[in-house]
Inverse folding.
């Protein structure tokens, strides 16, 4: 198990960062890049996943961290919905859609698992800090 001392150590943040890079790449395609509002919207929602994980971690308390993890999970759902729009507009291929949807679903599931872990620790009366010892199976 790895000791988590910074948000950059979290596998869910690393996965969200890689996913954000994938979104930036597809939104740079010629057709997609010219749909400015949609391009900016999907980039913002994908970035929100990693940013809310980081912000929640830095808040210094598990209650707030869990709240920000829920926001990150919501942003992952928003991004997944936007992937459907991108596919329907023929901005991305079926393979790209499948790959990106799978990635964002795995990120969302990992966030849910992390939330559950934090809640269980809280219900046990454990005093845990954000220097958590946790391993999530998901790796970017």
């Amino acid at each position: 198990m790895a000791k988590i001392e910074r948000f950059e150590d979290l596998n869910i943040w690393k996965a969200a960062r890689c996913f954000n890079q994938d979104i930036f790449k597809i939104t740079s395609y010629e057709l997609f890049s010219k749909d400015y509002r949609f391009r900016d919207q999907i980039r913002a929602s994908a970035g929100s996943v990693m940013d809310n994980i980081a912000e929640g971690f830095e808040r210094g308390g598990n209650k707030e961290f869990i709240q920000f993890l829920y926001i990150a999970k919501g942003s992952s759902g928003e991004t997944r919905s936007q992937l459907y729009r991108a596919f329907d507009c023929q901005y991305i291929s079926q393979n790209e859609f499948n790959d990106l949807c799978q990635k964002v679903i795995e990120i969302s599931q990992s966030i849910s698992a992390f939330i559950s872990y934090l809640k269980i620790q809280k219900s046990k009366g454990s005093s845990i800090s954000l220097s958590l010892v946790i391993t999530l199976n998901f790796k970017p």
Residues 94-123 form the longest helix (30 residues). Residues 125-140 have pLDDT under 50 and may be disordered. The helical segments are 11-26, 30-34, 36-58, 62-88, 94-123.
